[in-house]
Fold:
Amino acid sequence: MKLDIDSGDLGEFCSIIAAGPFTERLDSVLRETPNIAWARDLVEYFDPDNFSGSFEDDTAIFRKKNCFSHQKEYRIFVYDGISGDDPRVINIGDLSDIVLNCHKADLHKAVIIGVEAA
Structure:
């Protein structure tokens, strides 16, 4: 699998996070946080010209028009029942052991993406 670093304008640098350890840490903190709703999943892309209907419950959070499908986005949704623009902080601790920061031009040298055999 080759990453497309030229699509979009997401800046010159990137952070690569080990997904498994990150989601384990995040899930652990979120499970222990009272009075919140949360979910995480890959975004599904739909064709607005052929879609007629609606999304149930919180599924709309994980849907986007197919013109954004090149993003291959993963979302984390956390809701504490409070509306507004004030930021919320979820402290999952130091991530330096599971994060690699690099210039996007060096991404292909820094990361190899593959599928592990079961």
Observations:
- The chain has two helices and six strands.
